[in-house]
Each structure stands twice: as C-alpha cells, then as structure tokens.
Known about the structure:
This is Protoheme IX farnesyltransferase. Helices cover 77% and strands 0% of the residues.
Amino acid sequence: MEKGRGAAAPLSHDGAAARTSLASPRDYLALLKPRVMSLSIFTALAGMVAAPGPITSWPLALFSLLAIALGAGASGALNMWYDADIDALMTRTKNRPIPAGKVPRPEALVFGGLLALLSVWLLALTSNYLAAGLLAATILFYVIIYSMGLKRSTPQNIVIGGAAGALPPVVGWAAVTGSAPYEAWLLFAIIFIWTPPHFWALALVKSADYDAAGIPMMPNVKGAEHTRLQIWIYSLILIPVAISPFFFDFASWLYLAVAAIGGLAFLHAAFGVWRQGTDKQAWRLFAISIFYLFGLFLALIIEHWGGLHG
C-alpha cells in the first residue's frame, strides 16, 4: 500500500455520504483553492502589465486572465481529487469538500478535467498557442509531476513543484506578447525561490499533520533545524533575485523600494526562524512572505499602469 493512503476506509465512507448529498456552489468553489487561484491571477496580471507595449484589447486580455484563473482552479480541483485520502488525515485539510463528504471524488475529477480543457482552449482562442501551451504545462506539472509524483516521494517536493505556482506571470506575459523572454522568467524565479521558505515555515508548524499523512516534508525528513537553515539560505538567495527586475530595466524606483524594504523584513523574519525556531517565528515569516510577494507584484502593476516606469 502506498504511503499516505492508509485511511481509505474513512474516505470511502465519506464518499458514500457525498453520493446521497447535494454539494453547494460554495463547495465547488472551494475545490478551486480560491486563495491559491487569486495569487495566480494576480501574478499573471502583473506579467501582462509588465510586458512591453500597450495591451491592444482589454476584453481579450481579461478573457485570457479568466482562462488562467480557470487553469489554476482546475489544478486545485485535480489536486484535491488525487489527495483526498491524505487530506482526510490532516487537521488543516480534513474539511475540504471531498474528505468532508460534500463532493464525490469522481465528480471532482470530471469537474477539474473539464475546467482544465476549457481553460487551455479559451486561452488559445483569446491569445496565442504559446500562452495556451504554457498554461497546459502548468496544469500538467502541478497535477502529475507535483501531486502524483513529488509530493509523496521527496522532501524536495515543494522546491521542484513550486515551478507550477511560479509560471502564471510567464503565461500572462506570453498571452499579451506571444513570447516569453528572460524578463518573464525573472518573475518566475522570484516566485520559485520564494516558495520553499514560505511553505517550509508552514511545514514547521504543521509537521505533525504531514507526519500523520505520510508526506515527506522537509521538517519530517531532515528535521526542524535543517529546515530552518534551508529557509535562511533560500531567503538570502531570494532578496537579490527579487531586486533584479530593477537592474534589468523593467521595474523602477517604486519596485526597488518595496523589494528592498520588504526584503529586509523578510530576512529579519527568516533569521528569527533560523536562530529561534519557535512556532511564533515561523507563523510570522509565513505571514510576512505573503505580504512581501503581494507587495512586489503590486508595485510592478502600479509602476506600469501609473506610467512610473520608462
């Protein structure tokens, strides 16, 4: 039996309950992981706005953004379909629609699969095949490479799997330009390097949950001390990478100020996790990391929309 799938019986019972109940629209919305989806929408918008040249058709751009949102939601639904067994074992996820018996597992699979196909088709229709291909790659990477492969097999799961969450700004950039130059991949790099310290801070607090589900997160495999050191190392790498758009001339003084001040706050919190290692410090870094990433991409949007760049 595969590790992390030992709670099949309770899940089957939940599935039986779900077949006799009606899910609400809110339950299907929850399948989309709306908080994760909102981050994908926001970073994709930043990629669209930061790309050179004006957006010639905002209606098409908004439909492209909708397609990216649907793709992110499809990834979330398919992830919940596959992970329903381990979700039932963790306090953080046991109330999700499938383990809670609100949405049958097969319905989640069909729902996520149809959304994935719709999102890629819509993006190809409203933008170009490169953007649609990148969106398809994002969905496949998140579901097959991360959810089905990495998550249950290696403590590097969130490091490699973070590529899926880092792709939306590249997709957004490609949607309005038909290309994916190095500037778009710098935005990818920021999110990619940000992801491990962000999620490992949560994993330090929730290590008992991951242990119960048999998920080899870094604290459970390498220990808390090693994880805290890795958080500090990734944080040191992140800050110069996050500042780099200014030196590559597609961000201006506002972005630089946010990246520098936010970076100092991020480093301070990461240093506290490394040296003190308390749950309070880990929660603090987790919260600061969210505001930090939001601030970076908001500054980029404001600069390009407000004419502060170039």
